[in-house]
Specification:
alpha+beta; Beta-Lactamase; five-stranded antiparallel sheet; five-stranded mixed sheet; rod-shaped
Length: about 500
């Protein structure tokens, strides 16, 4: 039942409204009850005062006792105080000192069941006037009454002997009608508020639930391999932001799936091609199709293809380690200019074979950077290898190390075919080969630049490419200069290791 968000919302709002109105009703009921009781107390007090004034005035005018006044003039007192009894909604009882009821006024339904109030009650009133405020007065009434007591003393005696009592008794505080009306009002108000909240919650929930349902359907489509489903996103609230994020995730998943398919296709192709060549050449040697005098030639090709497979496998392993976060980088200070010179020397044979014009430029004799030496060597070696691979005969190869905006910028420039503008955004993607149908080199797997970009990103540096198709290509990446403290710490560590 409570699996639906809509039902949960409605139930929650209903409980909140119900609890809220119940608390309000209890507070208002308590306030009204207290107010009504206080008002009733005041009215009964005034009734007792007026009754006492009437009785005592008659006593003084006639010069008789309290008992004689009640016995001689009961009708006069009844007629005088009957209206007061109705106004205060009370029964007026006048008793002697022993509790005997001498006169009762306002007893319409024979509510007074006895002819006297227990003597101990009259006695206790002189000690604790509020002892019987809510009581049956020892059986005088069948149910509890609200009572107010006024003792009458003989002023002629020194000890003010109690000669009687005036009892004002009411069966109602006047609260029940008000509370009943208030309860009805709260119930009706609660119903209207509940209906209004129900309508509001319905539309609010629908606004929230619909995108979630769309996301659920889209997620089920994703589980089946369909990533073209999108969720409608409108507005600027959190639900719209969630829908937008979901669509972005779908786009990313679609791109990842496409990359995965391309990855598998490229890996299959790059593995199948050299393996087919190797298998064909070895079968030709074994069955005698290839004559013995050409064995060395074709074995050289087999060796080249094996090295190509080895490079591909090593590149895939590097990528896997980087993506899994297993490749750790140890940053040390080193001279990037010296590294660039040594890399150029390692390509001397290829440079001479193509008769390239090589230039090396640097602002400083020593350009000390703080990075992982082996990783940066791999970056610079791959960029130089690509530059020499795609440069034309007698072309220009230029490496420069300059300092700009507190960073070293290392540039690898070569003339030649370059990279088309539409290929530049994808040049660092895995297995991407620019103009692969007409490329000058067929041996690459399309992983070198992806590895280069991953290493530079791991160093929190930047790399970009400038190219004009048919003229030149230039890769530029940045490195952070080493501080004096980093250089000093590395020098001390190096000395300690040499001493050991």
């Amino acid at each position: 039942m409570f699996k639906s968000i809509f039902v949960k919302y409605i139930t929650s709002f209903a409980l909140l409204i119900g609890i809220g109105f119940t608390i309000i009703a209890l507070i208002m009921s308590s306030m009204i009850t207290n107010y009504s009781i206080n008002a009733k107390d005041d009215l009964m007090y005034q009734t007792a005062e007026i009754t006492y004034t009437a009785v005592s005035g008659l006593m003084q005018d006639l010069g008789i006792t309290y008992r004689e006044t009640l016995e001689r003039y009961p009708n006069f007192l009844t007629n005088s105080l009957d209206k007061l009894s109705r106004v205060s909604d009370s029964i007026i009882l006048l008793t002697d000192e022993n509790g005997k009821i001498l006169l009762k006024i306002g007893d319409k339904g024979n509510e007074v069941l006895t002819k006297s109030v227990p003597t101990d009650i009259i006695y206790n009133l002189s000690v604790k006037s509020n002892s019987y405020k809510y009581s049956t007065l020892g059986g005088v009434f069948s149910s509890r009454y609200l009572n107010y007591f006024y003792l009458i003393t003989d002023s002629m005696k020194v000890d003010n002997t109690v000669v009687g009592a005036i009892l004002i008794c009411s069966s109602s505080t006047g609260v029940s009608g008000i509370v009943e009306q208030m309860t009805k009002t709260i119930i009706i108000s609660s119903i209207w508020v509940f209906l209004a909240a129900l309508i509001a919650v319905y539309f609010i929930t629908e606004r929230i639930i619909d995108p979630l349902k769309e996301m659920s359907r889209a997620a089920r489509s994703f589980s089946k391999g369909r990533f073209d489903v999108r969720v409608p996103a409108s507005g600027t609230d959190e639900v719209a932001e969630l829908a937008t994020a979901f669509n972005n995730m779908a786009t990313s998943l679609a791109k990842t799936e496409e990359t995965r398919r391309q990855f598998l296709a490229n890996v299959s192709h790059d593995l199948r091609t050299p393996m087919t060549s190797i298998s064909g050449f070895i079968d030709g040697i074994m069955d005698g199709t290839i004559p013995p005098e050409k064995h060395n030639y074709y074995l050289g090709i087999v060796s080249s293809e094996v090295r190509r497979l080895s490079r591909l496998v090593n590149s895939l392993l590097d990528i896997t380690r980087m993506q899994a976060g297993e490749r750790k980088y140890t940053k040390i200070p080193f001279d990037i200019s010296e590294m660039a010179r040594l890399i150029l020397i390692s390509f001397e044979e290829k440079i001479d074979a193509k008769k390239l014009n090589v230039s090396f430029l640097c602002d400083e004799e020593k350009s000390i950077v703080y990075a992982d030496r082996d990783a940066i060597h791999q970056v610079l070696y791959n960029l130089c290898d690509n530059a020499i691979k795609f440069i034309e005969e007698e072309g220009d190869l230029k490496i420069s190390v300059t300092k700009k905006d507190k960073k070293y910028q290392i540039s690898v420039y070569n003339t030649g075919q370059g990279i088309a503008s539409e290929d530049i955004p994808y040049i660092f993607d895995r297995f991407y080969k620019s103009d692969s149908s007409r490329g000058l080199d067929k041996t690459g797997a399309g992983l070198g630049l992806y590895i280069v970009k991953s290493i530079i990103d791991s160093h929190e540096e930047e790399i970009h490419v400038n190219s004009q198709y048919g003229r030149f290509c230039e890769f530029v990446f940045t490195l952070t200069p080493a501080t004096s403290s980093q250089i000093a710490a590395f020098t001390v560590e190096k000395q300690q290791k040499s001493e050991q």
